[in-house]
Amino acid sequence: MARPDELTFAPLGGVGEIGMNLSIYGLGNRHQRAWLAVDLGVSFGDEEHLPGIDLIMPDIRFLEKERNNLMGLVLTHAHEDHFGAIIDLWPKLGCPIYATQFSAALFEAKCAAERNPPKIPITVIRSGGRVDIGPFNVEFIPVAHSIPESHALAIKTDVGTVLHTGDWKIDPTPLVGLPTDERRLRELGDAGVLALVGDSTNAVRDGRSPSETEVAATIKKLVGAAKGRVAVTTFASNVGRVKAVADAAMAADREVVVVGRAMERVVQVARECGYLDSRQKFRSLDVYGHLPPDKVLALCTGSQGEPRAALARIANDDHPQVTLNKGDTVIFSSRTIPGNEKAVGGIINGLVTQGVEVITDRDHLVHVSGHPRRDELRDMISWVRPQLLIPVHGEALHLSEHAKLARATGVPKVLTCRNGDLVKLGPGEPGIIDELPAGRLYKDGTILEDAKSRAVVERRRMAFAGCAFVAIAMTEQGELADDPEVDLVGMPEKNAAGELLDDIVFDVVVSTVEGLPRPRRRDPDALAESVRRAVRAALNEQWGKKPICLVHVLTV
């Protein structure tokens, strides 16, 4: 009797971390499977540990190898951690992409802002619609989140149905878009759900996430009470929040001026898709300086401390068109993403130094999460009643807490996995059956590098301990033709005794060369290696750090 096809799942990003989401589902046997990819997102570089790296993406080696069996890529929503890697990685895959109208429009606008974007076609599916992608039937089920048209995906196969939640929360009164479709999720549960692959971001937080309507009421009150200029910063993609700010400005008889390209792009796409009506007026940057202080509200990018975004430039008092003064107000209608605390703190300090009043979610309800807390997770489980639950979209603690909650709620099987684990969902006993290649790609300028690349590894070391450059000219007889050249970059000028490090290194280079036997002096590679070792050892002795050392030998 023929063995039935297996339904498998593997995260290639987004598990054990927040960001860089990429999940794949496979249908077939170990010799051949059809694959469906869900989301293709980025994480953001950390200047402290990854200097010069702006974006981090999932390693797609496995999907490149399987590209002939990759039926398509489905997008749950248009946040960067779910679709930000498409422009860079899709050319390696070339598969069809499926998304709803807003996600497709925002992606198109993003491509238009690139210098030479690849032509990437997207098939638009209506919210609530279904599409057959190879052996997978995918239904887009509306869920509330902090961007319009977020969807859970019901992935139906001959083996069973998987609910891939994407990012979601339960908000009966979202300002923009549809609430989470409880009725449809209950119907899925009644029909039988093999596995729920679910968002774990807020699994450590009790209760429920407040509604966007409550945030809108707070913003309206704060803007109405403000005396001077007001600036509000939020995630550009949070169209509901943008609408709340525009409504608050209108109620306070203020004009909204949009500051920042990302914000301009989202406002334009949201208007085109019908999420912002004509009552909400958005003015261009050039009118800011012509409006009285009590008649203007600046809607700014930069809520995460991004150094090139509008708010950072305002805080540093070097924005060419937007200034704030003593008595003005800035509202951070956002949560600081872990890792960005230092950058955001720097901006807040800059604003406070200028005499600006800064309001954050520590003071007032000016932000709510777009992810479910524990009571909402329990609701989802009770509606869907899965046979198996797999926590994703979270760090180790979030995944563990989601798994504990699922077990306590009575889910028959709960399985935690890591990026690269291939999980058999059914038929039969679920479990991890293989390990797929998984890792990270780093976007360095316009080039993609893997984690072992020289640029990534050496730049980290250079940032920590600098670099020593040594140039030596040798005669064919193995004698120094001239004095060596020494250049120390990123190091102290003097040692603890006040002696110049350049002079110390120069003496070490000369003594090392003269101390080598003549045959080694005639071998450029052997000479360079001896000098490199001696210079690093000397600097370690004088300074306590071992820099990168580059030695160039020229024979004249």
UniProtKB/TrEMBL annotation:
Keyword Repressor: no
Keywords in alphabetical order: Cytoplasm, Exonuclease, Hydrolase, Metal-binding, Nuclease, RNA-binding, Zinc
Hydrolase as UniProt keyword: yes
Organism: Bradyrhizobium jicamae
Highest taxon above the source species: Bacteria
Domain Metallo-beta-lactamase: 21-219
Family matches, as InterPro entries: Metallo-B-lactamas, RibonucZ/Hydroxyglut_hydro, RMMBL, RNase_J, RNase_J_2, RNase_J_b_CASP, RNase_J_C
NCBIfam families referenced in this protein's UniProt entry, alphabetically: MG423
Protein name per Swiss-Prot or TrEMBL: Ribonuclease J
Lineage: Bacteria, Pseudomonadati, Pseudomonadota, Alphaproteobacteria, Hyphomicrobiales
